[in-house]
Each structure stands twice: as structure tokens, then as C-alpha cells.
Design goal:
heterodimer; A: 341 residues; alpha/beta; six-stranded mixed β-sheet; five-stranded mixed β-sheet; 13 helices; 13 strands; B: 484 residues; mainly alpha; two-stranded antiparallel sheet; 2 strands; globular
Chain lengths: 341, 484
């Protein structure tokens, strides 16, 4: 009984303490006071967010959390990673449990409006694809009429699949799965002819097979999946900070600012764009309530966009994703950071 | 007469025949087989079908187990080793993932240099449990405590525990075993305080916090001593009030001041570092310890003659039993966040423990109500005839019998609840069965691994649940007062 009394008291005390502290402050002020950024991430997705053997988080989405923490708090390690599931992720943002959601979430109309989120940009342009075994003899998704398809339930991919097959007047039998691991298992066991999910996920799955050469990813990409960080509606300054941190990483790659040459560029760069970005001229940081070197710290956290991409999911990694749509606009991709001015 | 007899009876045996061997089909293995496996056509068919299934399973999975690889740093390395050792088409289990990541499946993200702390917590817990679980059987108590002490201390040494805590644990075990040999009732206070100590060992922080939490009831007791003699009702009320007021107003500041004055603290560990079996066992033990007393109170309340108490209890039990546990967990993790003011940090593990506890308590209440209903009416009447008041009658006559009847149901509820702790995966906590293996699979080295973590985690769950079930059988035997 001692324990029950104690727990009840702790609960009551915490409640009261919470009410005492309750204040309608800006997210920026809260994060600074807490000294820590609460960042919602995936509970585990290859290349995007995963804890290693020591519990340190790494990944493409994780790097964005660290960049924001570096910009705001001056320390990329001051991040509390809050693992969120597909069901809890958006509630975690709107209830204030996390300040920022960097969890490979697709930016859609209803999420932006109805769920009262603000997507502050796109850090990865994904799209839904299909993987089939070579033995099936299929070379195009258009030939999948009548196929059984492994599909994760409760995701946008499920709806896209239905749309695509209806639009092309084809039939399919869905095999519902709950997680990537289960999907791979079903696909390998032959329970379905094709496995569909985001193309980045397919690449990672295929890379982990014992015989990747026997499986092909079909050329059709049947949906647009712009994955981006999301914040709560209503705190525009905080949204700006996240948006421009991402833009700073993208712009840094465009201007050739890397974590390696940044110190030198701070001293010697004559490019006015670079000077403004790194805070050596003008005071851009002050406009969002940060200091002048915010972008420099964000880039130093894990490098510019290109470095983050290469380190986590790029062609040198086992996942081996090409830049594709995620290349700079100058390289034929979609990354286009607005000017820092 | 004997002659007559000899003439009328042709043959009289005057010695016993030597005992012969029973017929072949009535002895040894053959008899056992006939009785147990081939007693009639239906049994024979079932036996053959069972043997075929086992044969099928073994032939299909034997090579997979036989080709296990325990030493590798990634799944692809496992595959290389398997194909190099047993040929390119061989398949095999890659238990190397368990070897590499056993710590995360066991402790989650708990700091690795502090692994000895949960180990010590759950080891010392057996001392606190001794007066509860093994109150009467000295030999069993001795065996359990000595084995626990040896295993815990060995594990603490292996996990790099500091010498001072090793000595502390050794002294605690020695004291516990001594008390259990002399008089196990001496350990009852340990059992009462241990939950606080356990929380402190697990989460760390300042030692002054649990101390000042204990000061609250002590002050309440003083208030009750002063007022209780003259005004019993007021005294009880004042005691509770003093305790709660002390906790809410003074305890926090006092603990801080004391900490500043004489720092006594161990490294604190946040709830988001908990995971794997550490999380399951923490939630499970807390839920078990809390749900039984709450369940008893609820069951008694449901039997009560007082309308308000009875209807509140019925509403609570029926509501909780009518709602899936996952719903309650979602309420704990998501809905509460909307109701609580922003910036509130109401520990997620605490929220989950509360929800799991009330869920198990509702089921527990019905199990115990079954025991109460099974008790003959005469027992209640006998208690009344002896002039016992309500609480004495419950404590001395009704509950001991009702709880004894309910043991199988109670332990079933415990086992079910312990297994349900893996549902916390849905609120983003790292349970050992799904979230933690999925997080491990999210590293490219182990992506594609599937059955190995399931087998490991399933085996540990089986061991724990089987132990609980065996304990309940022991308890039933011990409490048997059959009037056959």
C-alpha cells in the first residue's frame, strides 16, 4: 500500500506542479528554458532514425533534429528523442509532447489543415514503388493485374495502392501486414507477389536480402510522398526556425559550405550569400530570436544536406539511394532553398 | 476327516506359486505406452498424428537451429559464415543478434555502466518478497534467497558494479537471510519500504526524496497518536491530511535543501531510457503489487451493502472491463496530454503503470468476488456469531479462505497482465517483443532478421510465466485444507 499512496502522491504533485508552471509561452522560450529539444522520431526506420547498440540515435531525420537543437541551443546533443508510432505521431505534436516531428511523415493537405500541423518543408521527396521477384517476369507495375500485394495497413501507401489500381482498372488481393519486418517475411515466404512501400524503404529492404539480385524494384512510382518536419499550428516563429534550419542545410550544400570548410569560409568567404548565412554580415538570426551563428552551428552538427544524405542513405551506404529528386535544383532535383536575405 | 477330505478333493496346493513376470504387454514400457499413448483407436490415431507433427516440425526446423551462428557483427556476415560452413544453400539462425544486442532486449537504453542497478533491484526484491511469498516454508525460503544472492552478486560483478554497492548488496542479502532464518516477520517492514527503495535504485536521483516521502506517513502517525485517543475519526482524518499536506507542500523543498546540505544521490536515469525486459518487469511487478490490494478492496466494495460504495465499484469494474487495454494506454499516452497543461511532465511509465494497474485490478476484483461467492454462507454467519466486526471478520475468516479459492484465477490474471505489458509498444515505449527488435532491425546490420529475437524473448517470457504458474501450484498445495 505504501507504493500506491506514493505513486498517487507523485501523480498529484506532478499535476499541481504542472499547473503552476503552465504558461502560454512560445515554443522557443520553452525549449530554451528546458535546455533540450523534444524531437519526435520513428521508433526505428533504416537510414532515417535508429538507435545503435549504445542507444545513440542516428539517421537522416535524426540529423535534422540535431541541426535544430544546435541552432537553438548551441549543442546538437541536447535532443530528447521521443519515439512515435504511426498512431501517436501527430497527437504528440499537437499535445505538445514534442516540439518538432521529424518522422518521415508525408505532407498532405488534410494533415496540414485538419490536423492543425505546419509542415515546414520537405527533407526527402519519396514515392511509392513496388518490388517483385525476378521469377515473376514482371517489368512494369501495369502488369500486376490480379497480383497479391503486401501492404502496410493504416498508411497513405494503402490508399495510394487502391487509387492506382482503380485508375488502371486492375484487380489485386491485399495481404495486410503490420510492420516492415513482417512485410519482408511475408514477401520472402511467397505470401505475396509484390511488396509495396516508399521507394526508400524498398531499397533498404532489398539491400538486406540474402539475394538482392533476384528482386527488382519496378520503375513506376505511383505517388508523391514529400516527407518533411512538422510543428504545431500557431507558433509561427518556431515554425520559421525549423523551416530555415532545413533551408540553411540545403543552401549550404548549394553554396558549397560543408562542415569541413565552414570555419575557413567564416573567415575568408567573399560570397555575400555565404556571409549572411554564416552570420558574418547582417544579423539574420536576430529576426527569429536566435544569435548570428545559428546556421553555422546547424551545419556543423552533422554537415550540410548533401553530407547528411551521403552519410545516412546515400550511394556509399548499404541502402544506396541515388539523389534523384532530392538533388539541388541546379542538378536537376527539387531542392530549392529561398534566398537568405 | 483329513482322509475323507483327501479322497473328496483330488488336489490341494500347499505352497504358493512363485511370482511370475507379468505378461509382456502388461509391463514396463509396453504397458506405459498402451496405457498412455495407445489406449484405444482414437488415442492411437491422435498419438500417431502428434508424432507426425513433431517429426514434421523437427525435420523442417532442425537444420535452421543446427546451423546457428553466434559470432557475427551483422546479418550478412552471418549469411557468409553459414554458406561457408554448411554450403551455399544452407540456411541457419543468426543468434549473433542476441549476442550483440542482448543488453538492449534486457535493459533497453538504460546506461550500460549502470546495468548492475536494475539487477540489484530485482535481486534484493526477493528479500522483500520472502515474508509475502514464502512465509511458512523455511527450507524453500533459504534455497530461494541463497540462490538469488549468489546469482545477483555474480551478475553485479559481471556487470561492473562499484565495490561499495557490491558490499551493500552482500550485506543486505546476509541480513535478509539471517532474518529469514531467525524470524521472517522481521522482514515485513522491508517489504513495506522496498517499493520506495526499488524506485530509487531504478530511477536514481537524490536519496532524500524517498526519505522525505517516508517522513510524511511518520508525521501522520504522530498526528494520529496525539489526536487518535480522544477523537478516533478526526485522528485518522488528520493523519491522512498531515501526510498529504507534507508531501505536497514541504517534501519537495525539504528534499532539495537536505540534498544541498548533505548531498546523497546516485545518477538519475530518465524513463525514456527504460526498455526491453526491464520495462516489462518494472510495469509487471508494480502492476502485480498494486492490483491485488486494489482488487480486494473493489471486490469487497462490490459485496458491500452501502449503495454508493457498491454502485461506484460496479461502475468502475464494468467500465474498465468493457474497455480494451490498448484504449486505456492510448488515453494515458495521448488524451491525458490534452487535459494536462502544456509543459507538464507526467512520467509516461507512471501513466502506463496506473492504467495497467486499474485494468488488472478490475479483473482481480471479479476473480476475488468469485472466491467470496464460493465461500459457504455459514462462514459469514459464524464470523457474525463470534461477534467480530466487519474488518476483523474479513481479515480473519472470509478473505483467507476466499483468496485461497481464488489463487488459480489470481495468478492467471498476473500472468496475463505481465504478458500484456508488451502492448506498451503502441504508445512508443520499447517493449521487448516488438518495439525493441524493430529498433534493432532499423540498423542496416540487422535488417532482415526476424525469428531470432522472437524466440529469445518468447523463451524468457515462458520462463517467467512458468515460474509464476509453478509457484501458484505450490501455494495451492501448501494451503490445502481439504475436507475430503
Amino acid at each position: 500500500m505504501t507504493k500506491s499512496v506514493f505513486l498517487g502522491t507523485v501523480a498529484a504533485a506532478t499535476l499541481l506542479a504542472g499547473m503552476g508552471m503552465a504558461q502560454e509561452g512560445s515554443t522557443l522560450a520553452q525549449v530554451k528554458e528546458r535546455g533540450e529539444l523534444n524531437c519526435g522520431v520513428n521508433t526505428g526506420l533504416v537510414g532515417f532514425a535508429a538507435p545503435d547498440a549504445n542507444g545513440n540515435w542516428t539517421g537522416f531525420d535524426v540529423a535534422l533534429c540535431r541541426a535544430v537543437a544546435a541552432a537553438v541551443l548551441g549543442d546538437p546533443t541536447k535532443v530528447k528523442f521521443v519515439p512515435t508510432t504511426g498512431q501517436t505521431r501527430f497527437t504528440a505534436v499537437s499535445s505538445g509532447e514534442v516540439d518538432l516531428l521529424a518522422r518521415n511523415s508525408t505532407w498532405t493537405y488534410s494533415r496540414d489543415t485538419d490536423l492543425k500541423l505546419d509542415f515546414t518543408g520537405v527533407n526527402y521527396y519519396d514515392g511509392q514503388g513496388f518490388m517483385v521477384s525476378k521469377d515473376l517476369g514482371v517489368t512494369s507495375a501495369k502488369e500486376l493485374d490480379g497480383a497479391t500485394i503486401c501492404i502496410q495497413t493504416g498508411t497513405t501507401t494503402e490508399l495510394n495502392l487502391a487509387d492506382y489500381f482503380r485508375a488502371n482498372q486492375m484487380d489485386y488481393t491485399p495481404v495486410n501486414i503490420d510492420s516492415n519486418a513482417e512485410g519482408e517475411q511475408q514477401y520472402m515466404a511467397g505470401a505475396c507477389d509484390a511488396y509495396t512501400t516508399d521507394a526508400s524503404g524498398l531499397a533498404a529492404t532489398r539491400a538486406a536480402f540474402a539475394d538482392p539480385e533476384n528482386h527488382i524494384i519496378l520503375p513506376e512510382i505511383i505517388s508523391k510522398e514529400p516527407l518533411g518536419p512538422a510543428v504545431r499550428h500557431g507558433d509561427n516563429n518556431w515554425g520559421d526556425i525549423v523551416r530555415w534550419t532545413l533551408n540553411a542545410l540545403v543552401a549550404a550544400e548549394e553554396y558549397g559550405v560543408t562542415s569541413r570548410n565552414i570555419e575557413e569560409l567564416v573567415r575568408s568567404s567573399t560570397n555575400p550569400e555565404v556571409q549572411r548565412l554564416l552570420g558574418t554580415s547582417d544579423e539574420l538570426g536576430a529576426m527569429m530570436g536566435l544569435d548570428a551563428e545559428w546556421a553555422k552551428r546547424a551545419i556543423l552538427a552533422s554537415g550540410n544536406y548533401g553530407e547528411i544524405f551521403a552519410a545516412n542513405i546515400g550511394e556509399q551506404t548499404p541502402i544506396g539511394l541515388a539523389r534523384g529528386l532530392n538533388a539541388q535544383w541546379t542538378q536537376g532535383g527539387l531542392l530549392y532553398a529561398p534566398p537568405f536575405r | 476327516m483329513s482322509d475323507t477330505h483327501a479322497q473328496t478333493v483330488p488336489f490341494v496346493r500347499d505352497t504358493m506359486l512363485p511370482a511370475a513376470q507379468p505378461p509382456d504387454n502388461q509391463a514396463g514400457a509396453v504397458r506405459w505406452l498402451r496405457e498412455n499413448l495407445f489406449a484405444g483407436p482414437v488415442n492411437s490415431v491422435l498419438t500417431i498424428a502428434g508424432i507426425l507433427i513433431i517429426f514434421f516440425l523437427v525435420t523442417h526446423f532442425w537444420d535452421w537451429f543446427a546451423h546457428s551462428v553466434w559470432n557475427a557483427s551483422s546479418l550478412s556476415e552471418c549469411r557468409e559464415i553459414i554458406s561457408a560452413t554448411w554450403g551455399p544453400d544452407a540456411r541457419g539462425a543468426c543468434f549473433a543478434v542476441i549476442r550483440e544486442r542482448w543488453n538492449q532486449l534486457t535493459f533497453g537504453f538504460y546506461p550500460s555502466e549502470l546495468y548492475w542497478r536494475p539487477t540489484m533491484t530485482f535481486g534484493l526484491q526477493m528479500i522483500a518478497l520472502a515474508p509475502v511469498l514464502f512465509a511458512t516454508a523455511l527450507v524453500i525460503r533459504r534455497t530461494v534467497l541463497v540462490i538469488t544472492a549468489v546469482v545477483t552478486l555474480a551478475a553485479m560483478i559481471a556487470l561492473g558494479s562499484p565495490m561499495i554497492w557490491l558490499v551493500f548488496a552482500a550485506i543486505a542479502f546476509a541480513g535478509g537471510i539471517y532474518a529469514s532464518e531467525r524470524n521472517v516477520r522481521w522482514l515485513v517492514p522491508v517489504a513495506l519500504i522496498y517499493p520506495l527503495a526499488g524506485i530509487w535504485f531504478l530511477w536514481g536521483g537524490s536519496l532524500w526524496t524517498p526519505i522525505f516521502i517516508l517522513v510524511g506517513p511518520a508525521l501522520g502517525w504522530v498526528a494520529w497518536r496525539i489526536l487518535g485517543k480522544r477523537l478516533p475519526g478526526v485522528g485518522m482524518f488528520a493523519a491522512i491530511l498531515v501526510t498529504i499536506l507534507f508531501w505536497m507542500i514541504l517534501a519537495g523543498d525539504a528534499a532539495n535543501d537536505a540534498q544541498n546540505l548533505i548531498p546523497m544521490s546516485i545518477e538519475s536515469v530518465r524513463s525514456d531510457r527504460f526498455g526491453g525486459f526491464l520495462l516489462s518487469v518494472t510495469i509487471g511487478v508494480a502492476g502485480i503489487a498494486l492490483s491485488l490490494p486494489i482488487g480486494i478492496v473493489l471486490a469487497l466494495a462490490r459485496q458491500s451493502d452501502m449503495f454508493l460504495i457498491k454502485s461506484l465499484s460496479v461502475m468502475f469494474i464494468e467500465f474498465i472491463r468493457g474497455v480494451p487495454l490498448i484504449t486505456l494506454l492510448f488515453v494515458a499516452s495521448l488524451l491525458l496530454n490534452y487535459f494536462l497543461p502544456p509543459g507538464t511532465t507526467f512520467d509516461i511509465i507512471l501513466r502506463v503503470i496506473i492504467m495497467v494497474t486499474i485494468f488488472a485490478a478490475a479483473y482481480m476484483a471479479e476473480v476475488i468476488r468469485g472466491g467470496l461467492a464460493a465461500l459457504p454462507r455459514g462462514q459469514y454467519e459464524a464470523a457474525d456469531a463470534l461477534g467480530l466486526d466487519y474488518w476483523k471478520a474479513q481479515r480473519l475468516i472470509v478473505l483467507p479462505q476466499a483468496l485461497k479459492i481464488s489463487i488459480p484465477g489470481i495468478v492467471s490474471t498476473f500472468i496475463g497482465m505481465f504478458k500484456d505489458t508488451v502492448l506498451v509498444t503502441f504508445v512508443g515505449l520499447y517493449d521487448p517483443l516488438k518495439s525493441m527488435p524493430d529498433a534493432i532491425r532499423a540498423n542496416i546490420e540487422w535488417k532482415g532478421i526476424y525469428w531470432e529475437p522472437f524466440i529469445f524473448v518468447g523463451a524468457i517470457f515462458f520462463i517467467i510465466c512458468f515460474a509464476m504458474s509453478r509457484y501458484s501450484m505450490y501455494l495451492e498445495r501448501r494451503l490445502q485444507r481439504d475436507h475430503k
